[in-house]
Amino acid sequence: MKKTIAIVEDERAIRDNYAAAFSREGYAVRGYPNRREAMSAFAARLPDLAVIDISLEDEPEGGFELCRELRGLSAELPIIFLTARDSELDAVSGLRLGADDFLTKDLSLAHLIARVNALFRRVDALRRPPEEKQVIHRGALSLDGERMSVTWNGQVVLLSLTEFWIVYALTKHPGHVKNRQQLMDAANVVLDDNTITSHIKRIRRKFQVVDENFDAVHTVYGMGYRWVE
Amino acid sequence: MNRFLELLKTGPISGFRLRTKLLLLALTTLALPWAGCQYAREMETVLRESEQQSLLAVTTTIAGSLKGRNELLFRADSLSGSEDSNPRDITPVVLAGVPLIDGRADEWDSNARNLVRVAGPGGDSLRLLAATHERWLYLALLVRDDRWIFDASEINPLNPETLGDRVWLAFDDKRGGQQRVFFGSTGPGAVHARRIETQEYGREEAVEETRIQAMWQRSRDGWVLEIGIPMSMVGQHLGVLIDDRDRRGARRNSYGTLESSDLRATGRLIAASPDLNDHLRQFSQPGVELTVTASSGAVLTRLDAPALPGDYTRMRGFLPRMYRVFLDGGAIPRSVSQADRERAQQDLIERAAKGAPATALFSGRYENSVIVAAAAPILAADGKHVVGVIQLAQTADRWLTLRDQALTRLLNLTLFVTLFAVGAAFWFAGRMTLRISRLGAASETALSREGSLSRVLPESEARDELGDLSRSFSSLLGRLDEYTGYLRTLAGKLAHEIRTPLTIIRSSLENLESEAQSSGGMGENARVYVARAREGSERLGAILTAMGAATRVEEAIAHSERQRFDLAALVRATVEAYGTAFPHRRFVCEVPAEAIEMNGAPELVVQMLDKLVDNAVDFSPDGATISVSLQANETEVGISVANPGPPLPPEADTKLFESLWQSRAEGDTPQGRQRPHFGLGLYIVRLIAEFHGGSARATNLPDNSGAVISVRLTR
What we know:
The complex is a heterodimer of chains A (229) and B (715). Chain A is an alpha/beta fold and 229 residues long. Chain A folds into two domains: 4-126, 3-Layer(aba) Sandwich (Rossmann fold), CATH 3.40.50; 131-227, Arc Repressor Mutant, subunit A.
C-alpha cells in the first residue's frame, strides 16, 4: 500500500510541484492549503508523513500550531517543516515542537525526497526489532543507522534528521576532521556556515542534556569538526 | 517686520555664529550709557540755565539797588557816564594792589582797553594809562620821544630858555577851579609836581605840590612818567599835555589831552565812587566776580575775581576725562585766549548796556574751566537811561562737578552693566550653542548608517524651546526608527517573499527534468534552457542568502556565548586552513609562540578572520602574499591582515566598515562577478570586533602597495 504524504502549504504551485515529485516516487499525496482543512482531514485519517509550511494563509505561525496538534494525535508521525524562513529562532521552535526535520525551501526536490525516504526508513526500522549490525558503537555512543536513532550511555538522544546525519558523518571516521561542506553533503542540505555552527551547537546541547560532561564534538578552527572518543 | 526678518536671515549678521549674534545684540546695551549721556546733558542744560537765571536774578537785584544812585556809582564830583563819550576821557582801571611808582612801564598793560593814545609831532606819541587803587589815581605816560631834553640845572623853571621836555597835568578841583601842575625833567628819577602861583606884584613862582608823587625814567624808545595823585584832589576832568622840545629852550611842540592854548582839561575822569565797593561788598559771594562798568563799557570797579577752578578740573583720571570729551561735545566754547575772553565779556556788557539783562557762557582761564556770567543794566533815576552795567561771573565748577560726578557714576554703572550684559550674553550664547551643538551632534549620530537608532537625546528634560526641539527630534527619530525598522525587516520580508516564487520555479524545473527523464529526455536546446534557468534561480537564491547574511550574523552574535580559548592556536590553525582554501595565495602567519588566552566567541573570531581573508584575497592578485599577524598585550589583542593590491580610497577608513559599502569597482576582482556582494564582509568584521569590545580600522601600507585591516579586541 502506498505511503501517504500530507503537504500543508498555502502556495498552490509549490504544493502541486511537491505533490508531483512525491507522486513520481510512488507516494500518495494529499495537499491542504491551511491548518483547518488539514486538521479536519487528519482527524479522519492520519497520513504517514507530513510536510508543513510554517505560515499558512492568514496564520503566520499556523504550521507550528498544526505540528503541535498533529503531535497530539500521533507521537511517531514524521513531521518535516519546510519553510521560506531561515531564521535560527524558527528552526529551534520547530524542532522543539517535535518536528523531525526543519528544511528551507532552498532545498532541492531530490534532497527533499531523500529525506522523506530516510524518514520512512526510520519509521520502518523502528517497527522492526533492532539489528545489531547496523549499530555503530563509539564508546558511550551507539548509533543506529537504520532507525536513525542515537543513544549516549544507553540514553536516547533525540536528534533531528539533519543532526543525525551530521553526527553520523562525524562518527563514521572518528578523529577525522569533517569540514562544513562535507557535513552539508552528508546531511543533504545546503546551509551557510552559521547554520552548520548552530547545528553543531544544538547537537552538543542535546548530548549535554543526557551527559553534562559531553565533549566529543571538537571544533577545528578553520577546518571543521571532528568526533573525539 | 518682514523686511527686518529678511535682513536677519540674509543681512550682514546672517553669516555669524549664534554666539557672535548674541554678542552683537548685547552690545546694544551700549545705548544705555548713550541715553545716560543724553540725560546728563539735559540735566546739565537745566542746571546751567538755572544757574544763569539765579545769577541773573542776583545781578538784576544789585542793578536794582543801584538804580538812580549815581552818587554810589560814580564819584560824587565826576560826571555821570550817560553823556557821550569823549576820546580824551580817562577811565582808570581798578587795581587789586598798590602799584609801585618807579617809572617803569612793565607793570602796566600797554594794550589795556582804557589806553588813551595821542600822536605827537615827528613820530612822537603818548600812551596814557590810568588806574585807581583805594583812593589814589595812578597815571602812566608812555612816551615815544627821540630826544629827551632835560631842564638846565639851577634854572628858573619859568624861564623858557632853560626849559627841556615838560609834562602838564591839569584837572578840576572840587570847587570847580582849574588846577595845573607841571613836571619838569631834571633827569631820570623822582620828580616833583610844581604849580605856578602868582605872588604879590604879579610875580610868578613855581611851588611844589607835595601830594603828587611822580617818577620819570628813560624807556626803550623814549621815557615813562608815572604819577600818583590822591583821588580827593581831582574833580570831574583831567588831562595831560606834553611840551616836547628838540633842544633846551627851543620852541615847544605840545600834544596831549589838554587844550594846548589854555591848558584846560576837557577829558573826563570816569571813576567809581569810593562807596561803590562798600555797597557792592554786601552782595559779594565767594567765587563770584562782580564788575561794574559805565555804560561805555569802562570798568568802574571789580570785586573778587572768580576763585580758582575747584573740583572740576581736579577730576582727572582716564575715564572722567574720556567721558568729558564726549559729553561736552561743543556745548561750551573752547577758546581760552585772554582776548577771546575779554571780547566775550565785552559783548555781554554791550548787550546789557542796550537795556536788557543777558547771560553768557565762556571758557575760563584754566583748562576745562567754564565761566558763567550775567549782566544787567543800571538805570538812571528816570528808569530809561542806562548809566552802567553790572556783571556777575562765576566759574561753572559747581554744576560741572555735579554733572560729572553724576555722569561718572552713571557711566561707570552702565559700563559695568554693559560688561555684565555682554558677559551674560556671551555665557548664555555659549551655553545655548553648546546645548544646540550637543543636540545637533546627538541627532546627527542618532541614526547610524546601519539604520540603528539611539533615541535618547540630550536636553529632552529641558523645559524650554530646546527641550521641545529635543522632544520633537525624539518623536521624529521614533518615527524614523519605526521606518528604518520596517526597512531593515524589508530585506528579510522581501527575501521571504521572493523565496516562495523562487521555490516554485526551482521545483517546477526539477519536476520538468524528472518528467523529461521518465518520458525519454528532452531536446538539446530544452536542456540548455533548463540549465540556464536553474543557474539563474541558484544565483537568485545566493543573492537572497547574502541579503540575509548581516541579520543572521547579528542573530548569531546575540546568541553567542563567551568562553576562554587560545587565540594564537586558533589563528595559526585557521591561517593554515586558508592555505588549502585559497591555493593561489601565499599566507604568512606572524603569531607569538605562546598561548594567548582570551575571552570570546571562537567561532565568531573565525568568521571574522574568514571575512578579513576573503577581503584580502578579493583585492590581491594571484600569487600574492597575505600576511596575518597577531599581537597581544595585557588587555588587548590586535589582529591585522595585510594584502598587496590597490590602496584604499581616502574615504574608506570611515565607510569601509559600514553595511552595504564597498569600494570595489565592477569587475575589480575576479571573484566580483561570481559571488553576490553586499559589502557586508567588513561590516561583519566590525560587528564581531565590537562584540569583543574592540574596533576595526583600515589603513594603506606605508608605500601604498596595499591595504591593512587591523582589528583590536579586548582579552
